């Protein structure tokens, strides 16, 4: 009888170990980290490009256009 109880206990322990192993596995964690890093890079890049566009559109380009017109203004 003790031998049968030991077998049942052993099988129950093995079942518990097999059920717990996938839950404690963290092998796929790197994919989530990589996706977050890529998303952060895209968002930061978009913000930098938007800032540069605003800077060039309102500050640099009007001044540049005015200087080019003054440079090629032969009448004055």
Outline the fold blueprint:
Layout (H helix, E strand, L loop, with lengths): L1 H23 L4 H43 L5
Number of domains: 1
Class by helix and strand content? mainly alpha
How are helices and strands ordered from N to C?
Answer: HH
| Alpha plus pi helix count | 2
Beta-strand proportion:
under 5%
Low-confidence stretches: none
Number of strands: 0
Mean pLDDT: 84
Largest sheet: none
Q: What is the rounded distance between the termini? A: 114 Å
- Based on CA atoms alone, the radius of gyration comes out at 34 Å
Please state the overall shape, judged from the principal axes of the Cα atoms: rod-shaped
Helical residues, percent? over 70%
Q: Could you walk me through the main structural features you see in this protein, from its secondary elements to its overall organization?
A:
The protein is an all-alpha fold and 76 residues long. It has one domain. It contains 2 helices and no strands. The mean pLDDT is 84. Keywords: Membrane, Transmembrane, Transmembrane helix.
The gist of it:
With 76 residues, the protein is mainly alpha-helical. It is 87% helix and 0% strand.
Provide keyphrases for this structure:
76 residues, 87% helix, mainly alpha, single chain
């Amino acid at each position: 009888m003790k031998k049968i109880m030991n077998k049942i206990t052993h099988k129950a322990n093995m079942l518990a170990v097999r059920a717990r192993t996938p839950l404690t596995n963290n092998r796929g964690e790197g994919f989530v980290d990589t996706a977050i890093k890529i998303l952060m890079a895209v968002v930061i890049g978009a913000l930098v490009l938007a800032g540069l566009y605003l800077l060039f559109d309102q500050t640099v380009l009007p001044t540049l256009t005015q200087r080019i017109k003054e440079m090629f203004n032969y009448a004055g």
